[in-house]
Write a structure and sequence with these properties.
The chain is α/β, with parallel strands linked by helices and 443 residues long. It has 17 helices and 16 strands. The protein has 3 domains: 3-123, NAD(P)-binding Rossmann-like Domain (Rossmann fold, 3-Layer(aba) Sandwich); 131-254 and 351-381, Dihydrodipicolinate Reductase, domain 2 (2-Layer Sandwich); 258-347, no CATH class. The strands form 3 sheets. The protein has a 7-stranded parallel beta sheet with strand order 3-2-1-4-5-6-15, with helices on both faces. A 7-stranded mixed beta sheet has the order 10-11-12-7-13-14-16, with helices on one face.
C-alpha cells in the first residue's frame, strides 16, 4: 500500500488533506498526517479510516526518520526553515519530498544527491510560488512555440477577502496567511526590470510606487513589487525581456493607507518598545508622532501626511481600531509585533468569512512584427475560514503533484520547481476541473 505523509496540519492543509484522502480511497493508498499537535492532525482526517494522525517533531531525528521511512511521498507544510531538515531525512530514507516554499540555498545544494538517488524534491508548488509559475510558463512556452518574442512580463498575486465578506471593511483585506509575514512584507529593497533599465525600490518607497491593475469583473487593484523579480529572468527563460516585474496584489486604496504605517515606523521589528503594557491602540500610534500639546492624533496624522479628515487613509486606520482607546494587551513587543496584535483584533477571519485569491499576468510580445498583449487572471473564493481559497490554491497543486508522482506520471528528479510541461500541464488541467482556471484576454 502506497502512503503519503503530510507534515503540518495548519491553515493551509485542509484542501490538500481532503483531496488526498479522497484520492487514497479510490487508489487503495493510505495517508498519514503529522503535526506537533496530534489532535490537530486527527481533526484534519475527518474520520477517514485510511488516515492516521501522529505527533511529529522534526527535532526528534530517530522518530522523524522512522515516520518518513513509512511513507512513499512526503509533503512538508512545516515552516520553511525546517524543509532542509526534512529533506535530509528523505535522502537518508530514500523518499520523495514536495513543498510549497521557495527553494532555499540549503535545499538547492541537495540537488546532486537527490538526483543520484532518483528522488524528486519538488518545491514552489503552491500558489505563489506555484500556480503563478505554472500558469505563466504555460503561456510563455506557447508564445515561444508560435515564434513570438517576449518583451514584457508582469505578474501579481494577492490573498484578499471576497466581495460579499465584511462589506464595511474599507481595506478589503484580512489575514488569510501568516500575519507576521504581512506586517513585515517588503522590508528589503525590491529589484525589477523596466524597459531595459534595472530599477530598485527601497522599503520607504515600496507602497508609493504601485502598478494599477484591472481584473475583468472584479474591479481595480494595485500591486507592489516583490523583493527580487530579476531572478525569474533565468527561471522563466526570459533572457531578452525588457520589463520583468512580480509583486503582491491588494485592492485599490490599500497601499496608501499601509504606507502611513510604514512611514510612521509601526512595521519596525528591530527594537522593543518601552511601556507596551500601558499602551492603547491610540497611544501606540501617537508614540511615532510629534509632541504637540492639545493636538489630537488625527490632527498630527493629517499634518504629517497631508491627509483629509474623512479621507481614505484615516478611514482605514479608524476602521482597524488603530485610533481607539482600547488597551493593546501585550506585556512587551517590537512596533511590528504590537501592530500585528492590534490588527489581528479586526483582521482575523471570522468562521463564516470567505477569502479571495486574485492572480494577474500581463505578457507583451511581438509576433511577425506585430506587438501583442495577453492579460490573464485567476480568481478563487473560499467557503469559510477553514476551507479557504488560500488553502485550496496552496494545497491542491501539492496534492495533485503527489498523486501524479505515486501514479508514476512524473519522471523528473532532483531539486526542482514546476516550470516544465511535465508538471504544469497535468496540474493546471486538474486544477481547472476544480474551478481554479486562468482566463486569458488577448489584445
Amino acid at each position: 500500500m502506497k502512503t503519503v505523509l503530510i507534515l503540518g496540519a495548519g491553515r493551509s492543509s485542509s484542501a490538500l488533506i481532503s483531496y488526498l484522502l479522497d484520492e487514497a480511497s479510490r487508489q487503495g493508498w493510505s495517508v498519514m498526517v503529522g503535526d506537533l499537535s496530534a489532535d490537530a492532525a486527527a481533526e484534519r482526517l475527518q474520520g477517514y479510516t485510511i488516515g492516521r494522525a501522529l505527533r511529529f517533531d522534526a527535532g526528534d531525528e530517530q522518530a522523524s526518520r522512522a515516520t518518513v521511512a513509512a511513507a512513499d511521498v512526503v509533503i512538508s507544510l512545516l515552516p520553511a526553515m525546517l524543509h532542509p531538515v526534512i529533506a535530509r531525512y528523505c535522502l537518508q530514507e530514500g523518499k520523495h519530498l514536495l513543498t510549497a516554499s521557495y527553494v532555499s540555498p540549503e535545499m538547492k545544494a541537495l540537488h546532486p544527491e537527490a538526483l543520484g538517488k532518483g528522488l524528486l524534491f519538488l518545491n514552489e508548488c503552491g500558489l505563489d510560488p506555484g500556480i503563478d509559475h505554472m500558469s505563466a510558463m504555460q503561456v510563455i512556452d506557447r508564445i515561444k512555440a508560435q515564434g513570438g518574442e517576449l518583451t514584457s512580463f508582469e505578474s501579481f498575486t494577492g490573498g484578499l477577502i471576497a466581495p460579499d465578506t465584511d462589506p464595511e471593511n474599507p481595506w478589503r483585506y484580512k489575514f488569510t496567511w501568516n500575519p507576521r509575514n504581512v506586517v513585515m512584507a517588503g522590508q528589503s529593497t525590491a529589484r525589477y526590470l523596466h524597459d531595459g533599465q534595472y530599477k530598485y525600490i527601497p522599503y520607504q518607497q515600496l507602497f508609493k510606487r504601485i502598478t494599477r491593475v484591472h481584473v475583468p469583473g472584479y474591479g481595480a487593484y494595485e500591486g507592489y513589487a516583490n523583493r527580487d523579480s530579476l531572478s525569474y529572468r533565468d527561471t522563466y527563460g526570459l533572457d531578452g525581456v525588457r520589463t520583468l516585474l512580480r509583486g503582491t496584489l491588494r485592492k485599490e486604496g490599500f497601499c496608501g493607507a499601509w504606507d502611513v504605517l510604514v512611514q510612521l515606523g509601526c512595521c519596525d521589528d528591530t527594537y522593543v518598545m518601552h511601556g507596551v503594557e500601558d499602551l492603547t491602540h491610540r497611544t501606540f500610534i501617537d508614540a511615532f508622532l510629534e509632541s504637540a500639546a492639545g493636538v489630537s492624533v488625527e490632527e498630527k496624522l493629517m499634518r504629517r501626511f497631508s491627509l483629509a479628515p474623512q479621507g481614505p487613509e484615516l478611514t482605514r486606520l479608524r476602521w482597524s481600531g488603530l485610533l481607539d482607546d482600547q488597551p493593546v494587551g501585550l506585556a512587551t513587543g517590537t512596533p511590528a509585533q504590537v501592530l500585528e496584535h492590534i490588527l489581528t483584533k479586526r483582521w482575523a477571519l471570522h468562521p463564516a468569512d470567505k477569502d479571495f485569491i486574485v492572480m494577474w499576468h500581463r505578457f507583451r510580445y511581438t509576433l511577425g512584427g506585430v506587438e501583442k498583449v495577453i492579460q490573464a487572471s485567476l480568481v478563487a473564493t473560499g467557503e469559510d475560514a477553514v476551507r479557504t481559497a488560500m488553502a485550496k490554491t496552496v494545497g491542491l497543486p501539492l496534492a495533485i503533484a503527489a498523486t501524479l508522482l505515486l501514479q508514476g506520471k512524473l519522471a523528473a528528479r532532483g531539486v526542482l520547481i514546476p516550470i516544465s510541461p511535465e508538471f504544469y500541464n497535468p496540474i493546471l488541467a486538474e486544477l481547472s476541473t476544480l474551478g481554479i482556471t486562468l482566463v486569458e484576454e488577448e489584445g
